[in-house]
Design goal:
By secondary structure, the protein is an alpha+beta fold. It is built from five helices and six strands. Helix content is about 25%, strand content about 35%. Strands 1, 2, 3, 4, 5 and 6 form a six-stranded antiparallel β-sheet that branches. The model has no long low-confidence stretch (mean pLDDT about 95). Bound molecules: zinc ion (ZN). Zinc ion (ZN) binds next to helix 3.
Length: about 180
């Protein structure tokens, strides 16, 4: 396993549009290793999502931990499911916008409140090149929208209506973190 270097805000790779992957490319050994390394890197830095451009690869894929316990249907706490999403296409199911806190491994130690669509459907390919479709709402929907934005060179700052909520992580923990 390898921990990859994470691009930080200001690196041009984070502002470029990433390119889609062909199925044959997905199945290649280097791409399978990249996916494994992205999972390792996300875990190492305690992220819930990591997109190709964040590890200096201009490719339309991301890895994420989607927490099923966070969706509105009240299944009790299952562990977050690790998932790789390739060439995602998002359709908004419920356009009601929900504002909540986000962070980003490319913008370390900063949190800010971002409005996202409440519920989405995503069509994509998995790591075997097979078609997948999933619906997500709440926090998992937020993660998918944040990571898909990375594939188009968009950072969460760009989605903020106001910078008033921007906060450093320490201050977030002291003043803003919701009570569990
Ligand atoms: Zn991010």
């Amino acid at each position: 396993m390898s921990i990859l270097k994470v691009a930080r805000m200001g690196h041009p790779v984070l502002r470029a549009k990433a390119r889609p992957l062909e199925k044959s490319e997905i199945l290649s050994a280097p791409m399978q290793k990249l996916i494994d390394d992205m999972f390792d890197t996300m875990r190492e830095y305690h992220g819930v999502g990591l997109a190709g451009p964040q590890v200096h690869e201009g490719l339309r894929l991301f890895v994420a931990l989607l927490d099923p316990g966070d969706s509105d249907d009240e299944r009790d706490r299952e562990p977050p499911a690790p998932i790789v999403i390739i060439n995602p296409e998002i359709t908004v199911v419920d356009a009601a916008m929900v504002e909540d806190w986000e962070g980003c491994l490319s913008i370390p130690d900063i949190r800010g409140r971002v409005r996202r669509a409440r519920e989405i459907r995503v069509r994509a390919l998995d790591r075997k090149g097979g078609r997948i479709e999933l619906r997500a709402q709440g926090f998992p929907a937020r993660v998918i929208q944040h990571e898909t934005d990375h594939l188009d060179g968009v950072l969460f700052f760009d989605r903020m209506k106001s910078f008033e909520s921007l906060t450093f992580l320490d201050e977030y923990s002291r003043f803003h973190r919701p009570e569990d």
